[in-house]
Write a sequence for this structure.
């Protein structure tokens, strides 16, 4: 299977490990990724400033993938949600779609609605499949508890993103279970990471983040699993910079899901972008499959 690989803006510049670990894991699962050099911003930063400019950014990316006869695989849940919502808005309003296509004609592009957008976790769960992932496992985790963080953009609006049940999602938990780790139940599972408030109200932003990390620790988790650059960076920033972070979060560390899975598949820590501390801790829980 082949997908157009949509990195977005944040991952390549601020969280390279997410890209490298995802590429390595998907390669090991026989998923081909096609890099489209002309991909640009998903349009999210413009949404509340100039909606049509935002939609044009979305339409352009969709058209670029469509020109290659490919569907899109996103790493960023914000990018995923933006592309999904933009595509739905364009298909709902033919006049708006025509307007966008008139702009796209200048680049010899056209969006006809036949490009689907998937998140990394959806591709792993629905396209690769849990059974195929299990066949690639060389070592499994034992006695490792993980708190899954779903994030906001993948779940809502549910009728458009169609990622999972927005009230009781299970997709991410099932992917964690394939590694042998235990996905714990915790009240803050679907709560916001606090990232959208960073730079606007830092105190409230970090309080929301700390509440999530503390809740994960109280549920017995050693790590909180993410699959979004913004959420991962928010949790990392919380532990690095906020004064009471390390005292209150019970030692819970954020980890990207492809890093968690990659170790089970026999990939080395360097390829996965895992630091020595987190990588060594995870390795302590690995046993032969």
């Amino acid at each position: 299977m082949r997908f157009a690989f949509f990195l977005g803006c944040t991952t390549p510049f601020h969280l390279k490990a997410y890209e490298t670990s995802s590429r390595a894991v998907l390669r090991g699962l026989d998923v081909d990724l096609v890099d489209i050099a002309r991909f640009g911003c998903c349009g999210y930063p413009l949404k509340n400033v100039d909606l049509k400019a935002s939609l044009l950014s979305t339409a352009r990316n969709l058209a670029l993938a469509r020109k290659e006869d490919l569907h899109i695989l996103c790493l960023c849940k914000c990018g995923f949600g933006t592309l999904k919502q933009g595509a739905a808005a364009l298909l709902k309003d033919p006049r708006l779609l025509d307007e966008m296509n008139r702009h796209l004609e200048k680049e010899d592009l056209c969006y006809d609605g036949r490009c689907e957008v998937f998140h990394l976790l959806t591709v792993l769960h629905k396209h690769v499949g849990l059974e195929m992932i299990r066949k690639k496992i060389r070592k499994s985790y034992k006695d490792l508890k993980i708190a899954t963080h779903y994030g906001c953009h993948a779940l809502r609006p549910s009728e458009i993103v169609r990622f999972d049940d927005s009230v009781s999602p299970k997709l991410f938990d099932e992917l964690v279970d394939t590694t042998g780790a235990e996905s714990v139940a915790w009240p803050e599972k679907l709560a916001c990471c606090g990232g959208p408030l960073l730079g606007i109200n830092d105190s409230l932003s970090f309080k929301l983040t700390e509440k999530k990390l503390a809740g994960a620790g109280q549920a017995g988790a050693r790590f909180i699993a993410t699959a979004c650059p913004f959420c991962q960076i928010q949790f990392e920033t919380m532990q690095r910079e906020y004064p009471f972070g390390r005292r209150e979060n019970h030692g819970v560390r954020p980890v990207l899901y492809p890093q968690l899975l990659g170790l089970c598949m026999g990939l080395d820590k360097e390829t996965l972008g895992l630091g020595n501390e987190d990588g060594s801790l995870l390795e302590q829980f690995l046993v032969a499959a």
About this structure: DSSP finds 14 helices and ten strands in the chain. The chain has two domains: 2-119, 130-288. The first strand starts at residue 2 and ends at 6.
